[in-house]
Design brief:
- By secondary structure, the protein is mainly α.
- The chain has one domain (3-239).
- Helices cover 66% and strands 4% of the residues.
- The protein contains 8 helices and 4 strands; from the N terminus they run αββαααββαααα.
- It has a two-stranded antiparallel ribbon with strand order 1-2.
- A hairpin with a 2-residue loop joins β3 and β4.
- α6 crosses α7.
- The chain is globular, with a radius of gyration of 18 Å.
- Mean pLDDT is 88; it is low at 248-262.
C-alpha cells in the first residue's frame, strides 16, 4: 500500500541529490578565503552547503550529493588535496547535522567528540593563543550540540516560521561548520605535516596563530551565507511537503510531510 509513496519519495531524494551535487560542484570553484599555509589552496563557498544538505536530505542522501559534487568538480578541473580525502570534512558535517536533526544526537556527538579529541591530541595543534584556548569556537559548538539548543534547532527548521528556520539554521550551521573544519584541520596536520612533510612542524604554531584570528570571520561568513540561502530553501521544502525534514528514525529524510506552522 505504501510502495508507490516510497518509490515516489526515493525518486524525489535521488533527484534532489543530483541537483544538489551539481550545486556543490559549482560552488567548489568559488573561494571565500585562502587556506593559510595551503600553498595556493582555498576554502570554497561549497563549505556552506553540508549543514543544509544534512537538514534537507539527511546523512545518506546528503552525503551522496556531496561526494558526487566533489567528483564532478574534480572531473571539470578542481584539483583534489589531502590525497583525495578532502571530501571527508564535508561528509562528517553533513552526517553529524543529518543525524542531529533526525533526533539521533548520540552519533552526532560521537563524531564531534572523536574529531575534537584527535585534533587536540595531535602534537602539531596549537593549544593556546595569548592564554585563550585555540579551539574555543570548536568547544562552543560542541557544547551547543550537547545542549537542548540543538534539539530546538531541529524543531525550528521543521516549521513554516522563517524566523525560527533562520535561528535553527544558524545553530546547525555553526555546529556543522565547526565539525567540517575540525576534520579539515586534522587532514591539514596529518597529511601535510606528518605524512608528506610538505609543511615543517616548526611552521604550525605560526599558521595556527594566524588562523586563530581569521577563524571567527570565516565561520561568520559561512553561517550568514547558510542562513540566507537555507531559510527560503527549507521554507519551500516544508511548505510544499517535499521531504520530511528531521523525521526521527529516518536517515534519508525522503518521506512526505505535513509541516505545521508553529
Amino acid at each position: 500500500m505504501n510502495q508507490p509513496r516510497e518509490s515516489r519519495d526515493r525518486l524525489v531524494a535521488v533527484s534532489m541529490s543530483a541537483v544538489f551535487a551539481a550545486l556543490f560542484a559549482i560552488l567548489q570553484f568559488i573561494p571565500y578565503t585562502v587556506m593559510i599555509g595551503g600553498a595556493g589552496a582555498f576554502l570554497s563557498l561549497s563549505d556552506l552547503l553540508p549543514p543544509l544538505y544534512g537538514i534537507i536530505l539527511g546523512p545518506f542522501w546528503g552525503g551522496l550529493a556531496l561526494v558526487l559534487g566533489k567528483l564532478i568538480a574534480f572531473l571539470v578541473g578542481r584539483p583534489l588535496i589531502f590525497y583525495g580525502l578532502d571530501f571527508l570534512p564535508n561528509l562528517t558535517a553533513v552526517a553529524a547535522v543529518g543525524f542531529l536533526v533526525r533526533g539521533k544526537k548520540m552519533p552526532a556527538a560521537a563524531i564531534n567528540a572523536v574529531l575534537l579529541a584527535i585534533f587536540l591530541l595531535n602534537p602539531l595543534t596549537l593549544l593556546f593563543v595569548a592564554s585563550v584556548p585555540f579551539a574555543w569556537l570548536h568547544i562552543v559548538a560542541f557544547a551547543m550540540l550537547l545542549s537542548p539548543l540543538s534539539r530546538l534547532a531541529g524543531e525550528w527548521v521543521r516549521t513554516l516560521d522563517p524566523k525560527k528556520i533562520s535561528m535553527g539554521i544558524a545553530i546547525l550551521c555553526l555546529i556543522g561548520t565547526m565539525i567540517l573544519h575540525l576534520t579539515g584541520n586534522i587532514l591539514f596536520e596529518v597529511v601535510l605535516g606528518q605524512l608528506t612533510l610538505s609543511i615543517p612542524a616548526a611552521a604550525y604554531p605560526g599558521i595556527w596563530t594566524a588562523v586563530f584570528f581569521v577563524y571567527p570571520v570565516e565561520r561568520a561568513i559561512l553561517i550568514v551565507s547558510g542562513v540566507l540561502v537555507g531559510t527560503p530553501l527549507i521554507w519551500i521544502v516544508n511548505n510544499n511537503h517535499i521531504l520530511q525534514l528531521g523525521e526521527k528514525g529516518s536517515d534519508t529524510g525522503a518521506t512526505t510531510t505535513s509541516a505545521s506552522n508553529e
